Amino acid sequence: MYVGRHRPATKPARGRQFVIPVDLLSSTVAAGLIVRDAGASPLSAEAAAMKNVSNSVAGLGLAADPDAVAVAAGDRGNLRASRDGVRAEAALGLAASSAAEAGADAAKAALQRIAAEKAAAKKAAAAKAAADKKKKEAERKRRLALAQRWIAPFHGYTLTSGYGWRWGRMHPAQDLAAPTGTPVHSLSTGTVIFSGWSNEGYGYMVKIRYWDGTVSWFAHNSRLLVSVGEQVTPGQKVSYSGNTGNSTGPHLHLEIHPDGSGPVAPRSWLAARGVYL
Ligand SMILES: [Zn+2]
Questions:
Q1: Who has greater pLDDT, 242 or 90?
Q2: Poorest-pLDDT segment among 60-64, 191-195, 223-227
Q3: 219: containing domain
Q4: How far away, in angstroms, is 161 Cα from ligand 1 center?
Q5: CATH code: domain of residue 266
Q6: CA 263 to chain CA mean position, Å
Q7: Is the separation of the CB atoms in 228 and 193 below 8 Å?
Q8: Where are any strands of DSSP class E within 100-221?
Q9: Rounded distance, CA 231 to CA 194, Å?
Q10: Of residues 132 and 58, which shows the higher confidence score?
Q11: Which terminus of the chain has a lower count of CB atoms within 10 Å, N or C?
């Protein structure tokens, strides 16, 4: 601080007194001019101390709390960085979001395609399974129909005595006259329950129980081709006709016993199953 009058070292040429305002002086000092502290008395110890304190305070004022300033500066930096980060994150987020959306769309499309393919495959498999089942069922029915079909037992015959009363007694059969050795066929699928000589006048006889429980009797055979317990198929040859037992000529004596019980008229029973004698 400059107090007092400025007295130039040399008197101006025109004798004018040169006064420099304090403010200007300060600036001239700052500009590097040499200023003599002319006329200024030395500062007292107290004043010097006060000046130092003041300077210290002023110094403190410039950086009241260096740490705080540093922190503040750092915070600004951090804040800036943080803002940049937020912007970057937002941008990244947007990018990621759109990328994720695009990815999600692609994944969704892929899943839908897979689901559609699965559904189509499932449908095709179901259709195939249904077709296979239908085919198997048709095959099963075909086989069953074959197994359960009814066949005429004899060929090349002449109908002689029918089912009914004959000469005062019941004839529970249909007689079919044919040369000895004419093949006799199983009426359907069944099991042989008797094959041998009959002590009741039937000669060589075969009895077969069919899949529906019906039992057929073939009597007066010349030769037997099956054994008891044997499984037979529709039309299978089981014997040859003949004239054995109480018989007056070569013929097949045919009896039909539904459920193994009493005999019924063979022709009508067979006719009901599509076989016409
Ligand atoms: Zn007879």
A1: 242
A2: 60-64
A3: 158-271
A4: 7
A5: 2.70.70.10
A6: 60
A7: yes
A8: 158-159, 164-166, 169-171, 174-177, 183-185, 190-198, 203-210, 215-221
A9: 12
A10: 132
A11: N
pLDDT in tens, 134-184: 999 999 999 999 999 999 999 999 999 999 998 889 999 999 999 999 999
Residue 255 placed within a domain? yes
Q: Does residue 48 or residue 163 have the better pLDDT?
A: 163
How far, in Å, from the CA of 206 to the mean position of ligand 1? 14
In a domain, 184, yes or no: yes
**What's the 147 CA to ligand 1 centre distance in angstroms?**
28
Per the domain annotation, does 257 fall within a domain?
yes
Q: Give the pLDDT of residue 17.
A: 52
CB-hemisphere CA count at 13 Å for 221?
25
Query: Taking residues 109-117, what's their average pLDDT?
Result: 93
What distance in Å separates the CA atoms of residue 144 and residue 193, rounded to the nearest whole number? 22
* Total domains, the chain: 1
Cα of 87 to ligand 1 centre, how many Å? 113
Does 102 map to a domain? no
Take residue 177 and report the two structure tokens written for it. Answer: 């006259």
Burial class (CB in 10 A: 0-12, 13-18, 19+), 170: exposed
Q: Hey, what amino acid is at 68? A: A
